[in-house]
Design goal:
There is one protein chain. The chain has about 210 residues and is mainly α. It has helices at about 5-40, 50, 55-60, 65-75, 80-105, 110-130, 140-155, 165-180, 185-205; strands spanning about 155, 165. The radius of gyration is 19 Å and the shape is globular. Helices cover about 75% and strands about 0% of the residues. β1 (about 155) and β2 (about 165) form a beta hairpin. Strands 1-2 form a two-stranded antiparallel sheet.
Length: about 210
């Protein structure tokens, strides 16, 4: 391969990375503003399937955002790209959500905003860590187990008679298990780790969802 061809391939690769990152940022903006717009809509104005799934409240909980962040991280091409892309998603989502609150809905919930901007601040670190979830070895299995635990703690209440919280969270949990699937023994290890961690999360933060 000639030097010119190598240069062209690098330029194409760089353009693709830039386009991907911009798309992720715009996706975050769309999700943030869209979730708030749905929240402001009357429930009976939404399609029946969205009413049944209680989409407005679903987007106000953590499971879906953990899942999206994990997917962006896992499928990024490198650790640095994972950190950048996850940050771009959250800065787009959180900023558009609270801009909508301030300028369209006419209020600004400061306490909630501080929590979400705090999450956005640490999101590059979390993205870099979660990128290793699809790798090999005990560390990757452990990270996968922690991601599953975070979703599981949103899906099943262990200290209130063991019950499922919401159907939408069950769907997210199934999707999480699918993207983090491994060989049977490794997958069992992931699940085995996720359950006690989910229990611990609910003991420390019983109402965090």
């Amino acid at each position: 391969m000639t030097d010119n061809n190598k240069t062209n391939l690098k330029e194409i690769s760089l353009k693709r990375k830039i386009i991907t990152s911009i798309a992720i940022l715009l996706f975050g903006v769309f999700m943030g503003a869209g979730s708030k717009a749905l929240d402001e809509s009357g429930l009976n104005e939404l399609p029946l399937i969205m009413q049944k799934l209680d989409i407005t409240n679903f987007l106000g909980r953590f499971a879906i955002w953990i899942f999206i962040g994990a997917c962006i991280s896992i499928y990024s091409s490198s650790v640095k790209r994972a950190a950048l892309n996850v940050f771009l998603f959250f800065i787009g989502m959180v900023s558009s959500y609270y801009i909508y609150c301030a300028f369209v809905a006419g209020f600004f919930p400061l306490n909630y905003a501080l929590v979400w901007f705090g999450i956005t601040f640490v999101s590059p670190l979390m993205g870099a860590v979660c990128h290793r979830a699809k790798g090999e070895g005990k560390t990757s299995i452990g990270i996968s187990g922690l991601i599953i635990a975070a979703i599981l703690s949103q899906t099943v209440l262990f200290f209130q008679g063991i019950r499922v919280t919401h159907l939408t969270e069950v769907i997210v949990l199934i999707a999480t298990l699918f993207i983090l699937r491994r060989k049977p023994k490794e997958f069992a290890a992931e699940i085995g780790l996720s359950i006690p961690v989910a229990l611990l999360i609910q003991l420390v933060l019983p109402y965090w969802g």
